[in-house]
Design goal:
It contains 15 helices and no strands. By secondary structure, the protein is mostly helical. Helix 2 crosses helix 10, helix 11 runs antiparallel to helix 12 and helix 12 runs antiparallel to helix 13.
């Protein structure tokens, strides 16, 4: 091997490394666009069965079916905004007139009632947190600041919303748009296999995301009924937030449970802790646990078995590994990504023994 060959090899390797770094840098700079595309892809997968129903059953033209689906999504979005805007406006008005010292006094009063209650039960909870000075360290003035930051971010949100809706429209109108773009970089002899994989992935993920919608809806109904029974303020909004958090596997239900616990207790500030706050909170949390049991033993197994066709243990391990490697994002995208990988492996490596075992139900 002469020096020219070695030099050319080194230059080629450096060129590849520089090219990869430039591509990664470019992707980093347009990460917001990539997020818009990813969200639009998910929405288009959810809307795909609706478009198909309108075209096949009601004989809508493709463009009219897509427009009707987009109008339906916009109607749902407006409905959600209609739930949250009055609450945010009310809280904004309250925060504008908020007496921080009075709020701190109410929280400290609730804290004292809790301590007194547990002391009567011979449980010393004050000593365990006495040295931390937790209440004095809480910055209550951060609440209005957070609201101001939220309002200032509405401009960026509106741009993102328009971008997502625009991209979603064309993904629904031309379902092969993204696939055809990818096929440009694929050798001709592998195009058919990739098309088959793409169609299979779309079908599976469409069923998966539609299943998630029903999963959220079931939890939302259960939580709403429980919160309304016990007279919790803003029951519909709280139920929706806690149900939506369930999209994050394992972590989401814990956060949702904590959120429901705090909001239930705070909605009864000024009432007797032992006679009103504690019993209501216990009953609400029992309802939350019942909802989680229904979700874990009914909703999730049906979604995983009927949509992505994977064993629950298999899904658990995939989510656990993805969470360790990529955090919250990994927990959310683990199942869709794993499903897509399984389909591609079955199409291109169907003779492999491991692939056969993993994809036997696909």
């Amino acid at each position: 091997m002469n020096s020219n060959t070695i030099s050319n090899g080194i230059l080629k390797a450096l060129s590849i490394i520089i090219g990869v770094l430039l591509v990664l840098f470019f992707l980093y700079k347009i990460q917001s666009v990539l997020v818009y595309i990813a969200i639009a892809a998910v929405i288009s997968l959810i809307g795909r069965p609706i478009v198909s129903f309108l075209r096949r059953k009601l004989k809508f033209r493709n463009t009219i079916a897509v427009i009707a689906t987009m109008v339906l999504f916009l109607g749902l979005l407006v409905g959600l905004v209609g739930l949250f805007v009055p609450l945010i406006a009310k809280q904004g008005q309250n925060l504008a007139l908020l007496d921080i010292n009075q709020l701190q006094g109410n929280v400290e009063s609730l804290y004292k009632e809790i301590v007194d209650y547990f002391e009567l039960q011979h449980i010393d909870v004050e000593q365990s947190i006495k040295d931390s000075n937790l209440l004095s360290k809480l910055d209550y003035s951060a609440i209005p600041n957070f609201l101001n930051s939220f309002v200032s971010g509405l401009g960026s949100f509106s741009i993102g919303l328009f971008s997502v809706l625009f991209i979603t429209f064309f993904f629904l109108k031309d379902s092969q748009l993204f696939g055809n773009s990818v096929l440009t970089f694929v050798p001709d002899e592998k195009e058919l296999r990739l098309k088959n994989s793409s169609n299979k992935i779309k079908d599976l993920l469409s069923r998966y995301f539609v299943g998630l919608i029903f999963q959220i809806l079931i939890l939302f109904i259960i939580y709403t009924i429980v919160l309304l029974i016990f007279g919790i303020e803003n029951a519909v909004v709280i139920a929706f937030l806690c149900a939506l958090l369930n999209l994050i596997p394992y972590v989401g239900p814990l956060v949702g449970g904590f959120l429901m616990l705090v909001l239930t207790m705070s909605s009864n500030l000024g009432e007797s802790f032992s006679d009103v706050i504690l019993p209501k909170t216990i009953y609400v949390m029992i309802g939350f646990i019942v909802g989680q049991l229904i979700d874990n033993f009914f909703s999730q197994p049906i979604i995983f078995s009927k949509s992505v066709k994977s064993h629950p243990l298999e899904i658990f391990l995939v989510i656990l590994i993805a969470g360790i490697l990529f955090g919250i994002v990994g927990l959310i995208v683990a199942v869709p990504a794993y499903t897509a990988i399984k389909v591609i492996l079955k199409e291109f490596l169907s003779d492999n023994k491991i692939v056969k075992n993993l994809t036997k139900d696909l």
